[in-house]
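Good morning,

Both structures are done.
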Amino acid sequence: MNQPIYSLVIPIYNEEENITEMYRRLINVMEQLDGEAELILIDDGSRDRSLSMIRELHQRDSRVLYLSLARNFGHQIAVTAGLNFVQGKSVIVMDADLQDPPELILTMIEKWQEGYQVVYAQRLARKKESWLKRFTAYAFYRILRRLANVDIPADTGDFCLMDRQVVDILNAMPERNRYIRGLRAWVGFRQTAVHFERDPRFAGEVKYTFGKSWALAVDGIISFSKVPLRLATYLGMLSAAAALLMILLVLYWRLFDPVSPLIGFTLITLAMFFLGSVQLICIGILGEYIGRIYEEVKGRPIYTLKETGGFVKASEISAK
């Protein structure tokens, strides 16, 4: 295959029910492109038949390349691995569950050809998702926009097109706790949105559980905002002001109303619980930041590879 113009990066984790349909729709899109394209599938330590199905696609179609991570490293790291190996001038990232419609890639490419270097898909609606999922997603993106030190567009996921220049900058970033959609906004350049309504999963179970979504949300806030640290300071100041007020009240009661029923065990207990909760919250916030510093300074590889297929420089592929 000649040097591709377009690279499609698809992280996969236990998606055996979706791979065949995903491939069919992606190939249909690739055949409408005005240049060569490669399809890079990243197996993120799947426990089902995903990897064997990916191997079969690679054997049938030389445009399909794949990476198999040595274990499950997580969605953001799988995307990072794919970005490390792309060859195209234009890179499209999307998930394998077909909630992000592959046909939208053609519109993204039109925007790229107009001169935009980042084109992200922005959701107008989420079909067949619970009200809790819709509400929490809506609230998170707006809280993140208020807290973050960069303008991260609301209601956007990892489904996007990035110019090669942007991808090279992302690949040069040494961060381990990666929030791709935030890093994508941080690099700058000309960016625009294309709008769509998000479909339900084509098949299979949701892979982003509440716990994983919560962890990703925390990563996004901690990676792009110092506000939680300031919050710890504000809570400390609030507790100090409350303590001063209580001292004045106790002195007043002792001097002017010594039989007040508010003096005694109840007041002391409430104060202890209040101060204890403030201290634990502040320690937890500090712990989140310190934990990320600890992960960064260890210097371990972001991921390890156990198998690759289709890459010309396969002998040079090693842990990143």
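Second structure follows.
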Amino acid sequence: MRLYILSRNEELYSTKRLVEAAAQRDWEVRVIDYLKCSIEIMKGELKINYLGEELPKPDAIIPRIGASRTFYGTAMVRHFEMMDVFSVTGSLAIKRSRDKLRSLQILSKKAIDMPKTIFASNESSAKDVIALSGGTPLVLKILEGTQGVGVVLVESEKAAKSVLDAFYGMDVNLLVQEFIEEANGSDIRALVVDGEVVGAMKRQGADGEFRSNLHQGGSATAHKLTRKEKSTAIAAAKAMGLGVCGVDMIPSKRGPLVMEVNSSPGLEGIETSTKIDIAGKIMDYIERNVEVTTTPTKKRKIRKDNIGA
């Protein structure tokens, strides 16, 4: 098996663990900085070059595409897909997941519960937006934010109006969401691989912090999912078309609410807290979907439902 991991930094925990898991299976594994790739497109011929040399065609790829490089990264993933290379996360699904608004629209269409969300342009009245969201307290999220950056809790109508007016004045795209007070600054991440939950952790925000992201000082412990939490995570992954993803849910009085579906989830927090070999589960997924034979001409049988233009 020849496997490429598309990652900008081979020293990251997640990248190193994926390399390690592939090496344990005696696979040929290589970390490729996708920003150093270029593509050739000719009649009936597609090629990828890396550092000035043509890359041999792999059997599978694992995209680890940074949020700020989504356009270029997904272009590379799509090129591999067009070459009939299996990707654990499809290019179209990655693009869907990176667009917070589009993600919520898709989840809503599939009747998956989430916090009530309002999206409006800077031509809208801040007062009307606050009223539509159900009033304060409420959460404001910048559409381009990641890892908890660009998320603000406002507790009074006066403060909400001031913040909304400021952001709208800068022409920033915002989501306005109801605040789930009973969550007490916690959320749940379920790691889904090939339609099954392979591990879950509960993240708790630092004292006085309503965001639970580990990058914002939160902590993580292993979590046993309820039946509803598990079915919600699986349904969300399926709705987004992601073979590997982290589904972030917040506990509420009406059940688990999906906040985000992450197409490139970090492995450190969940492997450390659960002691589960998540990287190995991803390799199992690849093995189930790519059959490599070594008869005179190598042939690859690839399940097509993960490939999209």
